[in-house]
């Protein structure tokens, strides 16, 4: 299907936008035609059903393996609402990227990619080949909710528009999720045992606290088995769970690329602040304040130590998920500290936009209907439906006019999140949707509200900002970046571990910098600077 591009029109007043975001209304007179492979079917531009005659489309998505998608009440009800039957060609989440690559290579594409995590390189590559179709004109005609979102949030449009001017995928938009990475948390029992009533504000105060943990037996077992700070290694990076927070103490926002307040892009591994971070971490390592298994252990191994009340500072979504037990407000969130070289810590905030969540392929016989289907997920009604499941199953309204809800009891023997995962596909995958505070209105516990307050006081009020926006590289830029990073990322990762553990003394910093420059570190910054400048002026 060929799409003729039209100029964007900013026509909707704020009142109309609010109305659109309320979800799909009753069926209207505005209609379109779509070829469903065996003839013509009418596509209604408003309301349900979406199509006048039932059609069947194929969808490929990552599956977490808790419930077959055919049996999920949300998807079953979507079939009834829309008149669109989905055939699911899913792959396990852990092997989804491999399966996705094989599908693209095969030429036998699903009609829809859902929660596919399509990289900007994949969008550009398969978009320019015509495998993924442009969506911008379809958005104008068939996606009122998403169109309103773009008009209210220009950065979303900038972040999903490829250098060739096309939009090849729809994103996950989570403006209310502020964490760039899971926070770090203090073990509240240790703070109490050491009579700490004021959290560290500088790197020296943090060092002093960690030293006290090591030497003063805060778990009270008479053994020097406390671990002041513990981390893990994943396939992505060493120390990734704690690095962002400790880098920030030296004025660095992120471990590879960030942009400063003057719009200059930096390659972190060449920065003086990164050297200061390595020096500090080496100090923690040499005095056994940083867990010596941090470069080898899994998250489960770290948790086992914490659940034996041995770990003082660690990263997780919430503290109790590492420590065990029930949610507790006694384990405070880490407040970013600063070194002597900066006036305030650099605090990274989530950009709120994850591209590549939903795309339509050239094999799709009904792109208009497909876009109307997903547009529902960007309304309050649809986002709630896909996040919490059908009304009356996991939740119910207590005040519908004001969107206030309460949870219902889950079946005996089931955890709430495990039960939710049987209702909806939007569990543990980057599914297309708009996250908004009203979805959880009335459902937040006292603990949830406490976490929000901790986030506000310790991150947002302290100047947290997005370190680098979601943006596109051209195909040529992406090819060059990928080539450079294939060796550069490995070298930087290896050298970080060597500098921190002392296997490579920090006197070797200048040689390291020379090697990184020779391998293309400065070129990585240049390429990203060009892409950022395009994004900024888009």
TrEMBL record:
Alphabetical UniProt keywords: Signal
InterPro entries: Bact_solute-bd_prot1, SBP
Signal peptide feature range: 1-29
One Pfam entry name: SBP_bac_1
UniProt cross-references to Gene3D superfamilies, sorted A to Z: Periplasmic binding protein-like II
Protein name: Aldouronate transport system substrate-binding protein
UniProt source species: Paenibacillus silagei
């Amino acid at each position: 299907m060929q799409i003729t591009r039209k100029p964007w029109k900013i026509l909707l007043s704020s009142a109309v936008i609010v109305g659109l975001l309320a979800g799909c209304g009753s069926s209207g007179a505005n209609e379109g035609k779509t070829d469903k492979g065996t003839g013509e079917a009418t596509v209604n531009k408003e309301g349900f059903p979406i199509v006048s005659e039932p059609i069947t489309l194929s969808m490929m998505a990552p599956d977490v393996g808790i419930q077959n998608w055919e049996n999920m009440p949300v998807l079953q009800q979507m079939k009834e609402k829309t008149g669109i039957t989905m055939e699911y060609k899913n792959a396990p989440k852990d092997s989804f990227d491999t399966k996705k690559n094989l599908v693209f290579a095969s030429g036998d594409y699903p009609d829809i990619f859902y929660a596919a995590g399509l990289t900007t390189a994949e969008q550009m590559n398969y978009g320019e080949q015509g495998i993924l179709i442009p969506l911008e004109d379809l958005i104008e005609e068939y996606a009122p909710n998403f169109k309103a979102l773009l008009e209210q949030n220009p950065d979303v449009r900038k972040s999903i528009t490829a250098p060739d001017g096309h939009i090849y995928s729809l994103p996950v938009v989570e403006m209310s999720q502020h964490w760039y990475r899971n926070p770090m948390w203090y073990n509240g029992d240790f703070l109490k045992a050491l009579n700490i009533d004021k959290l560290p504000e500088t790197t020296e105060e943090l060092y002093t606290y960690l030293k006290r943990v090591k030497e003063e037996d805060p778990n009270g077992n008479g053994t020097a088995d406390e671990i002041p700070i513990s981390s893990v290694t994943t396939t992505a990076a060493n120390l990734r769970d704690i690095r962002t927070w400790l880098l920030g103490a030296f004025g660095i926002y992120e471990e590879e690329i960030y942009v400063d307040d003057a719009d200059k892009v930096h390659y972190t591994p060449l920065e003086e602040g990164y050297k200061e971070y390595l020096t500090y971490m080496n100090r923690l390592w040499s005095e056994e304040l940083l867990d010596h298994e941090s470069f080898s252990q899994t998250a489960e191994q770290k948790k086992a130590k914490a659940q034996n009340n041995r770990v003082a500072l660690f990263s997780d979504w919430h503290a109790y998920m590492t420590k065990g037990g029930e949610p507790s407000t006694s384990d405070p969130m880490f407040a970013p500290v600063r070194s002597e070289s900066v006036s305030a810590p650099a605090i990274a905030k989530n950009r709120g936009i994850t591209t590549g969540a939903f795309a339509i392929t050239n094999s799709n016989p009904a792109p208009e209907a497909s876009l109307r289907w997903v547009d529902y997920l960007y309304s309050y009604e649809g986002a709630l439906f896909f996040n919490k499941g059908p009304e009356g199953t996991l939740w119910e309204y207590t005040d519908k006019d004001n969107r206030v809800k309460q949870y219902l009891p889950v079946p005996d023997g089931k955890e709430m999140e495990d039960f939710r995962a049987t209702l909806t596909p939007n569990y543990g995958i980057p599914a297309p949707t708009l996250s908004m505070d009203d979805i959880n209105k009335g459902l937040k516990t006292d603990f949830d509200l406490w976490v929000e307050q901790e986030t506000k006081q310790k991150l947002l009020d302290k100047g947290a900002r997005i370190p680098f926006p979601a943006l596109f590289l051209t195909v040529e830029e992406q090819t060059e970046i990928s080539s450079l990073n294939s060796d550069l990322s490995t070298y930087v990762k290896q050298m970080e571990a060597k500098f921190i553990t002392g296997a490579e003394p920090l006197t070797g910093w200048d040689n390291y910098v020379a090697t990184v420059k020779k391998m293309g570190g400065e070129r990585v910054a240049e390429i990203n600077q060009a892409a950022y400048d395009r994004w900024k002026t888009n």
